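Q: What residues go here?
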């Protein structure tokens, strides 16, 4: 029954992006906000992430820019008096705070409900003992383990459960490290170093390393109706974190009995925990028999639930929001584009989706590239196709950021290193597997070395067969058609044949061969739906048609990397929103399963494709957009697009053609909005570096710069305007200054305002500068809003970058801008 008592809810945000948390939680919060609004419920949001779109879209009076901690959450609850809080889109931090509020009786005393997660489920999160109890109560198999006090007890346990075993600490904060022991000698050696004065106990647990790694995502309403939204198969076995594994959906290599066993187990756990909403379970499944264990229970939104929604087209967040408000699955009224039966039907797919991780090692070479149970990837890309081969190659093409659509070669690895990387997984896992097949390694041997199912090696072998066909039959129509069906791009064939990409396209265009697009929806075409999310194929029927006569195409950044990428995804989403407000039909192209910009409420149509020239040109030919926007600094792509199309293509922030040599040291900057007629001064900005004012290490910002007096500022503004006039630049422009030892300031450079600082400028001034840029380049700009800008605000805004060093278990004193993973925002009043 719908809960009429809920009039106002507080969503706890996820804070700065980190490993395991890109923009998927903010995307879920945004979708949740839309669903709450549709139900007439007021939404409050608390977060300190400057790149949170939800914070931007909720009215400023209902936003709380504060760090997510117990003290601040309690303060906001007392001040805003919500009827309920929602912690399930805030990650583990929000869950832990909610646990504490509940344990202390604070929520009960303040009459605040918790939505999206039951009390039983809340207690289970990150509590292995409680999880074990829940699993046993559900009559499901639990990994055998026991706490032991000495070596003799440890051997008694091993005699019962058999090798291999894992020795691990009782408390995760203990100094004891996990160790897999495969025989008595390894066990004895490790136990000698385990039992000491500090550690008198440890856990002996049966090792499931090498088991298949399977994930299930289900939802349940308060009446107990349950559906399985998605099953995910990790290509890598247990021992590699699921966030670092190649993932395939739907599941490919399980028998029906195995699949149904895991589905039933998922439902039993959800019933036991009284789940109302979403629940994600992880399983370890023996490849030799039907033995399985539940390894993790996640009753909250995460990257696996985001991937499941993207892969199936099922409106997961919208549905779960309605469930937490008391509606039943058969009562939910979905937006018009969905069939009325979609919410209650388990998804059935006629396409394959493959996810491949993105690594941080290019920017942080100090980090170990060895993959284990600790997540290291900072992003991922997906490929969608009719076959596993097609989806896998599209995902692989998307995961490599070569502007020429070329895959890196592993041919320089010697055989010893290749075998080592097969046994001990590292980054670029799929490329290593392909190289092993290329060298003639047998599938049986590869399965033994990697613990990866033979099925996937046969799929990779098929891709190599197609690659040989491309090499041996250049510029042949049948070869091009066959290659397209397996996910090969025009750019790949052009590079192989050493010809321009347009020649490849001309060959199949002259025979009237064009890509078609299929809808990513949850019924395999059985239900009448109008889901505007597509992937390419080369079949006969095309399900996507030109959107309108006034369409704008926005090209996303693809998989998340270190640097400005979470900011770039926010930027992309804002561009889409502003274009829609200006009357354009909006189309976005992206391949990041966690992308905020792929939220279905943000654009009119989404294409999940590799961000490569051939794929972009295909969409341009179909949609015929009047404008193309490319957020981010992608000069080569811009050059290609301008060469192959006469469309109005605009990079944002504006691409300045004039070459600039940036200074080594800076202290502060002046930010301007520059039009053809005027240079509008916006704000001064302090640029803070932990390394001698080194520009590359400027990762903290403060606005305005309060250590500059009025006379100096006036002088700097005049000087800055002269440099702007000489540059002929337009858009958001930043003039850089450095303070010398004698206290005087000198001009040292000019540059376009970076993505991250553009968003920071918006937060600090209260003006959406992405909106103003979009208006400017669509000739709808009005200077009135800038004329009324208050450049003497009474508050100071700071933004500090965050880094993944701790999660990667390395120590770096001074991170640079290319190593940023997120940021924190803070306001304070001037003294």
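A:
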């Amino acid at each position: 029954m719908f809960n009429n008592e809920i009039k106002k809810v507080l969503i706890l945000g996820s804070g700065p992006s980190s490993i395991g948390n890109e923009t998927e939680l903010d995307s879920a919060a945004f979708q949740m906000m839309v669903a709450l609004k549709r139900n007439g419920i007021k939404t409050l949001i608390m977060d300190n992430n400057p790149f949170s779109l939800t914070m931007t879209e909720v009215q400023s009076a209902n936003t709380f820019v504060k760090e997510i901690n117990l003290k601040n959450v309690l303060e906001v609850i007392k001040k805003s008096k919500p009827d309920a809080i929602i912690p399930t889109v805030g990650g583990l931090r929000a869950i832990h705070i909610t646990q504490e509020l509940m344990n202390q009786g604070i929520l009960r005393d303040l009459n605040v409900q918790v939505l999206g997660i039951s009390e039983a489920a809340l207690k289970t999160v990150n509590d292995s003992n409680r999880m074990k109890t829940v699993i046993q109560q559900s009559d499901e198999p639990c990994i055998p383990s026991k706490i032991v006090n000495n070596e003799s007890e440890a051997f008694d346990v091993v005699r019962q459960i058999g090798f291999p075993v894992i020795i691990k600490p009782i408390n995760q904060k203990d100094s004891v490290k996990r160790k897999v022991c495969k025989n008595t000698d390894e066990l004895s050696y490790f136990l000698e170093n385990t039992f000491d004065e500090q550690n008198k106990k440890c856990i002996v647990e049966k090792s499931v390393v090498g088991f298949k790694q399977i994930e299930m995502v289900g939802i349940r309403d308060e009446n107990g109706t349950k559906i399985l939204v998605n099953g995910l198969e990790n290509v890598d076995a247990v021992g590699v974190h699921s966030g670092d594994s190649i993932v395939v959906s739907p599941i490919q290599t399980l028998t029906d009995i195995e699949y149904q066993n895991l589905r039933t187990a998922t439902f039993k756990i959800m019933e036991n925990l009284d789940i109302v909403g979403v629940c994600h379970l992880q399983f370890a499944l023996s490849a030799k028999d039907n033995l399985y264990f539940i390894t993790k229970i996640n009753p909250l939104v995460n990257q696996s639930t985001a991937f499941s929604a993207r892969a199936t087209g099922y409106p997961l967040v919208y549905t779960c929001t309605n469930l937490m408000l008391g509606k039943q699955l058969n009562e939910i009224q979905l937006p018009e584009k969905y069939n009325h039966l979609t919410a209650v039907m388990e998804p059935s797919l006629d396409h394959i989706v493959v996810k491949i991780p993105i690594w941080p090692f290019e920017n942080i070479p100090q980090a170990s590239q060895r993959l284990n149970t600790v997540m290291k990837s900072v992003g991922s890309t997906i490929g969608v196709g009719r076959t596993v081969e097609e989806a896998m190659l599209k995902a692989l093409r998307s995961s490599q950021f070569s502007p020429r659509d070329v895959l890196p070669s592993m041919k320089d690895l010697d055989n010893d290193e290749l075998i080592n990387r097969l046994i001990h997984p590292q980054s670029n896992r799929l490329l290593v597997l392909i190289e092993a097949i290329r060298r003639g390694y047998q599938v049986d041997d590869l399965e033994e070395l990697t613990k990866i199912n033979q099925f996937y090696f046969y799929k990779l072998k098929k891709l190599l067969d197609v690659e040989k066909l491309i090499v041996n039959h250049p510029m042949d129509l049948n070869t091009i058609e066959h290659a397209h069906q397996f996910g090969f791009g025009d750019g790949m064939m052009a590079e192989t044949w050493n010809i321009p990409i347009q020649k490849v396209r001309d060959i199949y265009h002259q025979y009237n061969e064009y890509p078609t697009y299929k809808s990513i929806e949850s019924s395999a075409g059985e239900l009448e739906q109008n889901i505007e999310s597509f992937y390419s194929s080369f079949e006969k029927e095309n399900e996507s048609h030109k959107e309108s006569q006034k369409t704008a195409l926005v090209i996303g950044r693809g998989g998340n990397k270190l640097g400005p990428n979470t900011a770039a995804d926010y930027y992309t989403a804002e561009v889409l929103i502003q274009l829609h407000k200006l009357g354009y039909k909006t189309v976005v192209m992206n391949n990041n399963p966690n992308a905020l910009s792929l939220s279905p409420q943000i654009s009119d149509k989404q294409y999940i494709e590799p961000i490569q020239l051939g794929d972009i040109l295909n969409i341009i030919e179909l949609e015929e957009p009047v404008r193309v926007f490319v957020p981010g600094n992608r000069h080569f792509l811009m050059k290609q697009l301008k060469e192959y199309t006469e469309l109005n293509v605009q990079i944002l922030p504006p691409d300045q053609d004039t070459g600039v040599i940036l200074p080594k040291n800076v202290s502060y900057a002046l930010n301007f909005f520059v039009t053809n007629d005027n240079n509008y001064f916006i704000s001064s900005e302090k640029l803070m570096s932990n390394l001698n004012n080194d520009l590359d290490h400027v990762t903290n910002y403060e606005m305005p710069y309060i250590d500059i007096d009025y006379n100096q500022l006036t002088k700097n503004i005049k000087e800055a305007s002269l440099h702007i006039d000489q540059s002929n630049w337009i858009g958001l422009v930043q003039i850089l200054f450095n303070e010398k030892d004698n206290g005087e300031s000198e001009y040292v450079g000019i540059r376009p305002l970076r993505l991250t600082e553009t968003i920071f400028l918006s937060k600090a001034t209260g003006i959406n500068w992405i909106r103003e840029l979009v208006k400017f380049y669509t000739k709808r700009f009005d200077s009135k809003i800038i004329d009324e800008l208050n450049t003497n605000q009474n508050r100071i805004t700071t933004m500090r970058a965050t880094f993944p060093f701790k999660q990667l278990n390395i120590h770096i004193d001074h991170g640079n801008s290319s190593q940023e993973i997120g940021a924190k925002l803070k306001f304070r009043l001037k003294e």
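A: Context that may help when evaluating the design: Residues 128-139+209-349 form a domain with the D-amino Acid Aminotransferase; Chain A, domain 1 fold (CATH 3.30.470.20). The chain has 27 helices and 30 strands.
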